[in-house]
């Protein structure tokens, strides 16, 4: 018995959908919720009890970020079912131009969010270029303003804001739309809570109403301010509408010596930002700029900072207390890519030295800055290391800090193991990319490692015992491996809380 081409195409669509859903680690119910469908519908489509529709295929493609594969399978199915005709989905524009989630049909063509810190006050201005691709006129736009002084300690934050609630008066929200000249927008509160507010920006004012009709564009801009004691040292943008470009700018006094890093959270993973935050001095100020193109729906981008030089006589805002947040959450907060992110499984690219010397210095500088931040969160009595892929940088560079802080940090560029001892031992190891657990790992007691200098000369260095373990761990990262790959089959990871009772310093 043969299967009709149309049926084979439907099976291919269902298989592609299931493959990408599994790849993104979503249940059928989770995917349905993100797409705006009834939970049973995804199950019916995957089981071929319902045929796929154009709307379903577009939403699945966008939510799962399937590189056009789901859409391609749908167009193949649709062309076989109805035959290719002008105006059919197979001949339409790209998914990124057409797909819209449930809602108004708004597209954010450009968002620029600027946060300026001046004289103890944070002033935020968000500008969004909007395009109405939906059938209905848009008459209002929702805005959420949230603060969290102690993000790692929710109970403490709740208590703080009950005692010091955020008020509309101090926010002093203003909003405009259009340009030359911009029109003021009327504001209508939606929610009024101690630590967050929601508000409608209405496309109207005392002069009239100005709906945004289908096919029209405009720019809205809104500004508010929050005192330093209520803000907290972070700034987050969430992608809730199809967005073509997102840019975030932080403007701080240079005298405070600010350090800035970032984290992004998607449906499937938490990791460091995939592109760097650019730092630009500007007189007595310093600006940090980060941007991205076509950010995935439902992704959150969070910039965090600290001031290394506090104002004389002013107490620096409290940092999260060790133990109040999971260890992995603290590592994520300083930009460490976490297990589950595909970048940890990709072999790093080698530098072409000395041609890439400047870039190698830049990558190593990023590693040093990250280790400084990590050292503030956690004491490392056994030494520690960090590889570039753990910052989302696909380059063959790693740093290793020996157990004795007085010893010089080891810089490894393009390293590879060229020899190892037959004698091994088994010790507990931890990894910054999944720091909530520890695992018993067997490694050689001695390694010979060939690596390069910035100038391109190659040297071979011998590492023994604890340093051999640290160096081997980091070289594994550069080869796309984790220490779990070396654990004896059947050996389980030990939760950090349990490890604290059985773990001991490495002894040789």
Overview of this protein structure:
The chain starts with a helix and ends in a 6-residue tail after the last helix. It is 26% helix and 32% strand. Residues 84-104 and 318-324 have low confidence and may be disordered. The protein has helices at residues 5-23, 28-35, 39-46, 54-64, 69-82, 95-98, 154-163, 168-171, 228-231, 327-333, 357-377, 465-478, 496-502; strands at 106-118, 121-132, 140-146, 174-177, 183-184, 186-192, 196-202, 204-205, 208-209, 217-227, 234-238, 245-253, 258-265, 270-272, 278-282, 285-293, 300-307, 384-387, 397-401, 410-420, 424-429, 437-444, 446-452, 458-464, 494-495. It contains 13 helices and 25 strands. Helix 1 (5-23) packs antiparallel against helix 5 (69-82) and helix 4 (54-64) packs antiparallel against helix 5. By secondary structure, it is α+β, with helices and mostly antiparallel strands.
The proportion of residues in beta strands is: 25-35%
Query: Might you state the CATH topology name of the largest domain?
Result: Immunoglobulin-like
Q: How does CATH name the architecture of the largest domain? A: Sandwich
Low-confidence stretches: 84-104, 318-324
Could you report the average pLDDT, rounded to the nearest whole number?
83
Q: Specify Rg, calculated over alpha carbons.
A: 26 Å
- Spatially, the strands of the biggest sheet line up as 5-4-10-2-1-12-16-15
Distance between the termini: 68 Å
DSSP, total strands: 25
Q: Helical content, roughly?
A: 25-40%
What is the count of structural domains? Answer: 3
């Amino acid at each position: 018995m043969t299967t009709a081409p149309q049926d084979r195409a439907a099976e291919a669509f269902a298989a592609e959908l299931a493959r990408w859903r599994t790849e993104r680690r979503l249940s059928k119910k989770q995917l349905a919720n993100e797409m705006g469908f009834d939970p049973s519908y995804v199950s019916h489509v995957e089981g071929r009890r319902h045929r796929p529709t154009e709307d379903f295929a577009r939403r699945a493609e966008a939510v799962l970020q399937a590189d056009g594969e789901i859409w391609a399978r749908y167009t193949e199915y649709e062309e076989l079912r109805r035959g290719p005709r002008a105006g059919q989905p197979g001949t339409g524009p790209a998914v990124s131009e057409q797909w819209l989630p449930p809602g108004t049909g708004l597209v954010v063509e450009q968002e620029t969010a600027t946060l300026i810190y001046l004289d103890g006050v944070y002033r935020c201005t968000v500008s969004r270029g909007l395009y109405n691709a939906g059938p209905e006129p848009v008459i209002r736009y929702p805005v959420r303003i949230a603060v969290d002084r102690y993000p790692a300690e929710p109970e403490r934050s709740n208590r703080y804001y009950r005692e010091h609630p955020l008020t509309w008066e101090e926010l002093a929200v203003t909003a405009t739309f259009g340009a030359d000249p911009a029109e003021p927008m009327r504001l209508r509160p939606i929610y009024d809570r101690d630590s967050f507010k929601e508000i409608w920006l209405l496309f109207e004012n005392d002069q009239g109403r100005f709906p945004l009709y289908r096919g029209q564009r405009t720019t809205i801009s809104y500004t508010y301010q929050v005192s330093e004691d209520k803000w907290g040292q972070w700034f987050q943008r969430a992608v809730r509408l199809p967005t073509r470009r997102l840019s975030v700018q932080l403007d701080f006094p240079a005298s405070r010596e600010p350090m800035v890093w970032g984290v992004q959270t998607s449906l499937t993973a938490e990791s460091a930002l995939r592109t760097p935050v650019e730092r630009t001095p500007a007189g007595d100020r310093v600006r940090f700029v980060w941007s991205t193109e076509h950010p995935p729906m439902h992704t959150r981008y969070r910039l965090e900072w600290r001031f290394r030089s506090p104002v004389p006589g002013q107490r620096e805002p409290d940092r999260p207390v060790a133990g109040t947040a999971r260890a992995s959450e603290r590592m994520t907060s300083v930009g460490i890519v976490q297990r589950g992110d595909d970048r940890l499984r990709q072999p790093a690219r080698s530098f072409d030295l000395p041609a890439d010397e400047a870039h190698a210095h830049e990558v190593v500088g990023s590693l040093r800055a990250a280790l400084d931040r990590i050292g503030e969160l956690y004491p490392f009595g056994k030494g520690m290391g960090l590889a570039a892929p753990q910052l989302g940088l696909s380059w063959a560079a790693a740093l290793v800090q020996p157990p004795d802080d007085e010893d010089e940090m080891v810089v490894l560029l393009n390293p590879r193991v060229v020899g190892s001892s037959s004698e091994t031992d088994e010790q507990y190891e931890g990894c910054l990319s999944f720091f909530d657990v520890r695992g018993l790992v067997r490694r050689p007691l001695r390694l010979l490692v060939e690596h390069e200098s910035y100038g391109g000369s190659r040297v071979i260095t011998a590492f023994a015992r604890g340093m051999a373990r640290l160096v081997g761990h980091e070289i594994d990262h550069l080869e796309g491996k984790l220490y779990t790959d070396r654990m004896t089959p059947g050996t389980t990871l030990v939760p950090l809380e349990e490890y604290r009772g059985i773990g001991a310093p490495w002894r040789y």
